[in-house]
Amino acid sequence: MNEHNVFPVSDSSQPAAQTLGAAKFDDEALLDAYSTAVVSAAEKVSPSVVKIDVTQSAGRNRSGEPRERQGGGSGFVFTPDGLILTNSHVVHDAKRIDVSLADGRPFPADIIGDDPATDLAVIRIEAPNLAAAQLGDSQKLRVGQLAIAIGNPYGFQYTVTAGVVSALGRSLRSYSGRLIDDVIQTDASLNPGNSGGPLVSSDGQVVGVNTAMIQMAQGLCFAIGINTAKFVASRLLRDGRIRRSYIGVEAQTVPLHRRLVRFYDLPQEGGVVVM
Known about the structure:
This protein has 3 domains: 46-124, Thrombin, subunit H (Beta Barrel), CATH 2.40.10.10; 138-239, Beta Barrel (Thrombin, subunit H), CATH 2.40.10; 247-275, no CATH class. The protein is built from 4 helices and 14 strands. It has helices at 9-45, 88-91, 226-239, 258-263, and strands at 49-60, 66-77, 83-86, 94-100, 106-115, 120-124, 146-151, 159-173, 179-186, 198-200, 206-213, 221-225, 251-255, 270-274. The longest helix is centred in the first third of the chain and has 37 residues, at 9-45. The protein is globular and about 75 Å long.
């Protein structure tokens, strides 16, 4: 009787244990792959990242003597002859710019050109043996892919943070009041001092220029797409500034008189006045 009531449960529990072990191994493998991607990208781009210290005029004190204020941010070398991309608000109206390389070498820098409308600037240093970052294609970014930010938040040099691309095609108002289009939103942590540093993909290519964060928010940070940066940098190198066209026309919307709408059987009750 007892022989018929015995059930062989040990054999069925074995596959479950093997499944749990395999899942644990897969999780560890995924974590290793993530860590490897971040480490590899950081090691590839960090030699190109620079710390920027800026001295700007702050008007005059009560006795009439000129005052100065100190500021700074980040940037990255994008050509071997010393051209550096950064944010316009980092170096705009600077009296003096000092750049520190990853190996600690300091160099003075000159502004080639800056464009407050896109918050981008190009500066240059005269230095040998420079490592240039590889520029990617921001049009190929996908929401959810790995994003790595490298910079100098609060003066802590060469800090690496990682997150994902949260959204694409955002618009951001620049310091000049103009809207910057095709902005990348990321949750890679940014702080004051990260401005101008690179946003990097997992393969070590720069896909954006870190530019802003929203105070008191969690994980809402923004970077200018590298395709925009490449276009702006080329124009700054050629002209020293961005030449924008305009047509010299002002316009505003106005309501149309009801009789006019009915007489012409217009589908809309408003129009545009051009001046």
